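Need a sequence for this fold. Nothing fancy.
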């Protein structure tokens, strides 16, 4: 937990430096106080330690998105079986049918993720703390939409990320 806490503080420090240029660095202190005040409650701690459904949905979506596009290459390397291979063996289906079913599973977990986001009691866990989970899942969706852009980027993922983070449109 200490490592995660330190990393989070480092992120806050970086954000504060960026916002200082716009005279908005006070927002970081507000976010820290508000977020940690809510996390410090027993209910928040219990929520975090009981595998929150929003986090489970995010992990499954990310894992399955990766499996859809990288399972063949991973099998060539001798990696562990992916969700696609497991589904094919368990249900005795071809790769195409497994892909269709897994895309349906991903879609259902997106519904679960969104539902859980709005269902979580904001007095226990602030929405600000849930957004990284949502955003990580969005990034996974982006990176694995048409290709395994993380491993084999044809569209130069580094440039795309730079455009989003360094030179945003807004």
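Here you go.
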């Amino acid at each position: 937990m200490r490592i995660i806490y330190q990393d989070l503080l480092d992120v806050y420090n970086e954000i504060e430096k960026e916002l200082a240029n716009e005279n908005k660095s006070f927002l970081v202190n507000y976010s820290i106080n508000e977020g940690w005040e809510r996390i410090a409650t027993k209910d928040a701690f219990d929520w975090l330690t009981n595998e929150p459904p929003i986090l489970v949905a995010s992990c499954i979506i990310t894992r399955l998105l990766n499996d859809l596009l990288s399972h063949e290459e991973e099998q060539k390397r001798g990696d562990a079986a992916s969700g696609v291979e497991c589904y094919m063996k368990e249900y005795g289906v071809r790769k195409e049918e497994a892909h269709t079913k897994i895309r349906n599973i991903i879609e259902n977990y997106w519904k679960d993720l969104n539902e859980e986001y709005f269902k979580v009691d904001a007095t226990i866990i602030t929405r600000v703390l849930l957004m990284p989970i949502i955003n990580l899942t969005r990034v996974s969706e982006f990176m694995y939409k048409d290709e395994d852009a993380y491993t084999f980027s044809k569209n130069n993922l580094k440039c795309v990320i730079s455009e989003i983070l360094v030179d945003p449109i807004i």
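For context: DSSP finds eight helices and no strands in the chain.
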